[in-house]
Design goal:
The structure is a single chain. 59% of the residues lie in helices and 7% in strands. The protein is mainly α. The chain has two domains: 207 residues, no CATH class; 42 residues, no CATH class. It has a two-stranded antiparallel sheet with strand order 1-2.
C-alpha cells in the first residue's frame, strides 16, 4: 500500500549520530534557518516596537533578501523542478486546495467549537481549546454546560486587520501581506521544516539525507514543530500531514512550495472576501 515510501532513495542513516559543533551547525544550516528566524524576529520583536503593520513589510523585504542571496549563492539545490511533470504540479495545487479547505471549513461552519474553551480546575485563564494564542474582547465568552465550557460570542482580535488602516497605506500593506503569504512564507517555511528540520532529525549533516526520505521519528517531530508554530493547531496537523504526504510521495520540495503557496493564496482570498482576519 505504501510501496512508494523511500522508493528510489539510496540512503542509510548512520549507526551513530555525528555531533557537529554548534557554531559549525549554525553556519552549515544558515540558509535554511536564517530566513525563518528573520521573519519571526520582525513579526515578533520588531512589531512590538514599530507596530505589526510596519513590521510585516520589513519582514517580507528582509526575508526575501536572504532567500534571494542564498539562492544566488547556490545554497538551495533541493529547490529544483527537475524530473517533475505537469501532473505533479496539478497534484501539488490540488493538495494546496484540499488542505486549505480543510483548514478553513471548521472555522467557517463551527466557529464556536473551534474557539470554545474548557477551563482547567475552574480557572478560565488556563484552558483546553482547539485554538490558542488569540486575544478576545472583554466578556467574549458565555458559560455553557454549567460552566464546564466557555463558548465565544465575540470574534477574536486579529493580528492584522486591514480595515483599520486608512489611505494608500492599506493597499501597500495588503500587497506586502499577500507577497509574504504566497511567496516568502511558502519558501522559508518549507526550507525550515522540510529541508532542515525533518532531515536534521535523521542526521546532523542533514544535507546527506535525500529530500523525501521517510523516518517516522523525523516526520512526527517536524509535524509537531510546524503545529506548535500555528495557533490553529488541529487544522495545522491536518494540513501538515497532507503536505508531508506530498513530500514523501513526490520527493520534491518545490512541489511542497507550490502547495503551500496555493493554500496561502486561497486563504488570503477567503479572508479578504469574508473579513475573517483571525485566520490570517
Amino acid at each position: 500500500m505504501f510501496s512508494w515510501i523511500n522508493k528510489g532513495i539510496d540512503y542509510t542513516p548512520p549507526v551513530k549520530r555525528e555531533i557537529m559543533p554548534i557554531g559549525k551547525l549554525f553556519n552549515y544550516s544558515k540558509q535554511d534557518w536564517v530566513p525563518y528566524a528573520c521573519h519571526m524576529v520582525c513579526v515578533g520583536v520588531l512589531a512590538k516596537i514599530v507596530g505589526p503593520y510596519y513590521a510585516y513589510p520589513v519582514a517580507v523585504i528582509a526575508t526575501a533578501f536572504f532567500l534571494i542571496m542564498y539562492a544566488f549563492q547556490g545554497k538551495y539545490p533541493e529547490l529544483t523542478v527537475k524530473g517533475t511533470k505537469a501532473t505533479d504540479w496539478l497534484l501539488a495545487i490540488g493538495v494546496g486546495f484540499v488542505g486549505i479547505v480543510l483548514w478553513i471549513a471548521p472555522y467557517h461552519y463551527f466557529y464556536d467549537i473551534m474557539f470554545a474553551r474548557i477551563p482547567i480546575l475552574g480557572n478560565e485563564n488556563i484552558f483546553l481549546s482547539l485554538t490558542y494564542g488569540f486575544e478576545f474582547p472583554e466578556d467574549a465568552f458565555a458559560k455553557a454546560a454549567n460552566g464546564i465550557i466557555l463558548i465565544p460570542k465575540k470574534m477574536p482580535t486579529p493580528t492584522y486587520d486591514p480595515t483599520t488602516l486608512a489611505g494608500n497605506f492599506k493597499f501597500v500593506f495588503l500587497a506586502f501581506r499577500l507577497l509574504g503569504a504566497v511567496v516568502t512564507v511558502a519558501f522559508f517555511e518549507e526550507l525550515f521544516i522540510r529541508s532542515f528540520i525533518v532531515r536534521f532529525i535523521s542526521e546532523e549533516y542533514y544535507k546527506r539525507v535525500p529530500i523525501g526520505y521517510y523516518c517516522k521519528k523525523a516526520f512526527l517531530i517536524a509535524l509537531a514543530i510546524y503545529t506548535v508554530a500555528h495557533p490553529w493547531w488541529l487544522v495545522a496537523i491536518i494540513w501538515g500531514g497532507l503536505t508531508f504526504w506530498l513530500y514523501y510521495y513526490k520527493k520534491n520540495l518545490m512541489l511542497c512550495v507550490a502547495a503551500h503557496a496555493t493554500s496561502n493564496l486561497l486563504l488570503a482570498l477567503y479572508v479578504l472576501k469574508t473579513g475573517n482576519y483571525y485566520l490570517w
